[in-house]
Amino acid sequence: MPKPGEVTLAHRGVLFLDEFAEFDRRVIETLRQPLEEREINISRAKGSFRFPANFILIAAMNPCPCGNFGAKGKECVCAPVNLVKYQRKISGPIIDRIDMWLEVSKVDHQKLSDNKSDGDTTKQIKKRVITAREIQKKRFADSRRGIKTNSEMNTRDISKLIILKNEVKDILNASAEKLDLSARAYHRLIKLARTIADLVDSQEIENNHILEALQYRPKKVTVG
């Protein structure tokens, strides 16, 4: 009998996958359905089963097997063929389903012992997140599907609830064409921009919100 797996156990929580590219490719590809439909459907001879899988995915991976590709002061010892094979473990459909891609550079040793911080405190960030969640709660108060966050919107919800100004739409369409974004990535970009706008309590999506959302798309890596 089918039993709940890790994605179902992470329902309404966070699923953290470290060394993402080291997972078997078949395992990575099975994330397609839950990331898109927020549930898992399993068919067996005795019947079909459906498990909830609405979770936040956080994945971490090195830029290459040795971990030094692109690092300052360090040499990557990976053979080009191994580097390409490693990077291709994460397919285009999986990339499309992950909203934010961030490259984290090496931390200076001096900063490790420095208690000073130039960024916002956890308390300040928490306050902004709570405010954004309240905004979204009101936005979807009349939703028949019971959604609560921007990420849960489908294309019909986007067309109904999000009206883009012409100048914002022009930037979005021009960028989507230049980056050759899929329809899925295009709509996820709008949802992310809407969330960025909510975090600063902006009623409309502005140019800078779209541009910031675009910065979170994965950068193409050239293997030399």
Architecture overview:
The protein is mainly alpha-helical and 224 residues long. The chain folds into two domains: 93 residues, no CATH class; 94 residues, no CATH class. 43% of the residues lie in helices and 9% in strands. The chain has eleven helices and four strands, in the order H-E-H-H-E-E-E-H-H-H-H-H-H-H-H. The strands form two sheets. Strands 1-4 form a two-stranded parallel sheet. A two-stranded antiparallel sheet has the order 2-3. A hairpin with a 2-residue loop joins strand 2 and strand 3. It is globular and about 55 Å long. The model has no long low-confidence stretch (mean pLDDT 90).
Describe the structure concisely for a colleague.
The protein is built from eleven helices and four strands. The chain has helices at 6-9, 25-29, 32-37, 80-87, 92-96, 109-112, 122-139, 155-161, 166-179, 183-199, 207-215, and strands at 14-17, 39-44, 47-52, 56-59.
